[in-house]
Amino acid sequence: MQEKEELKQYLIDHLDEAIEKHYLQVYYQPVIRTLTGRLCGAEALIRWIDPVKGFLSPDDFIPLFEEMNLSYKVDRYVIQEVT
Question: How far apart are CA 12 and CA 35, in angstroms?
Fold first, then answer.
C-alpha cells in the first residue's frame, strides 16, 4: 500500500518534468472500420517511459491525474504532439 502511495506522489511530482523531457510518448492505434476493413482513423494513446520507474501503464497515471484535476496537462501535451 505504501509503495502505491509513493508511486502516486512520484507521478504527481514528476508530471511537468515528464512533459518537458518527452517521457510521455504518443503512440497511434489504427481504427479500422469493421464493415469494410479499411482504415478510418487513428487513436492517440499515451505511454510514460520514465528513467527511474521504467514503463508506466496509463492505468497508473490517467485515473490519478483525473482525480487530481491534472489530466488537462496530459491532454494538452497529446494535442501538441499530434498536431
Answer: 42
- Give the tens place of pLDDT for each residue, 34-43: 999 999 999 9
Interatomic CA distance for residues 71 and 52, integer angstroms: 22
Eight-state DSSP code of residue 38:
-
Euclidean distance between CA atoms 34 and 40, whole angstroms: 10
Instruction: Report the alpha-carbon distance of residue 28 to residue 61 in Å, rounded.
Output: 19
Q: What 3-state class would DSSP assign to 33? A: coil
Coil, strand, or helix at residue 53? coil
Q: How far apart are CA 78 and CA 25, in angstroms?
A: 8
Evaluate if pTM is beyond 0.85.
yes
pLDDT of 47 reads 97
